[in-house]
Task: inverse folding
């Protein structure tokens, strides 16, 4: 059974640009959560989707957005990139909307220059 | 004060030693996760606990709901156990949102 797949693995963008990251959950999993990891702030929750609906949103500016498709794949978008957006972005998939184990992808390392 | 506190932040051990990493939290939870992260970023889920104790190989995780405290133990540590260990909690309700501790960087020396 394939794991959680995140693409791309690495990305370099310029300030002001926008970026879209993709997460394909484990087959059959309907919940996808996104997290940002930086050396200064550690792991922080971005958003959570279940059955194409955003269930929770973390304390991030509106430049950060996401969506989930009918096949449970999810994308997150960051517009008007800032240097501080450089981070490892991780997604996790779970079978149900709550109460089940989280499986993490390898992450997308975004560098903003 | 962070909602999830881990100690120690850094830990160096000799191969074969018994290791304990602690996690305290201040919020109501439905489950607590112990995660392992190696250099390069990927996170592996080690345990998901809501009560009691779980064991997998040389790893043991315990949780005391009344005291809001969990511990991760590694018996007979090995250099391949070197990684960052992260405690994360999930609140109640219909959510998979995790709140993370700051992690414990473990180095096991041969």
Result:
């Amino acid at each position: 059974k394939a794991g959680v797949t995140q693409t791309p693995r690495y990305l370099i963008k310029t300030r002001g640009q926008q970026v879209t990251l993709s997460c394909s959950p484990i087959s059959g999993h309907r919940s996808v959560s996104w997290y940002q990891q930086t050396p200064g702030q550690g792991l922080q929750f971005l958003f959570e989707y279940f059955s194409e609906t955003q269930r929770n949103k973390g304390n991030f500016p509106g430049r950060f957005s996401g969506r989930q498709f009918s096949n449970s794949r999810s994308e997150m978008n960051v517009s008007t990139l800032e240097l501080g957006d450089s981070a490892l972005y991780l997604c996790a998939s779970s079978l149900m909307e709550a109460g089940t184990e989280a499986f993490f992808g390898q992450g997308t390392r975004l560098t903003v220059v | 004060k962070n909602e999830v506190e881990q100690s120690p932040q850094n830990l160096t051990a000799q191969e074969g030693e018994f290791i304990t990493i602690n996690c305290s939290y201040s919020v109501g939870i439905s489950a607590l996760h112990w995660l392992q992260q190696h250099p390069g970023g990927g996170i592996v889920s080690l345990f998901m606990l809501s009560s009691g104790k779980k064991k997998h190989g040389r790893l043991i995780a315990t949780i005391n709901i009344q005291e809001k405290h969990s511990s991760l133990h590694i018996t007979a540590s090995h250099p391949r156990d070197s990684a960052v260990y992260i405690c994360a909690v999930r609140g109640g309700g219909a959510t998979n949102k995790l709140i993370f501790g700051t992690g414990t960087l473990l180095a096991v020396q041969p």
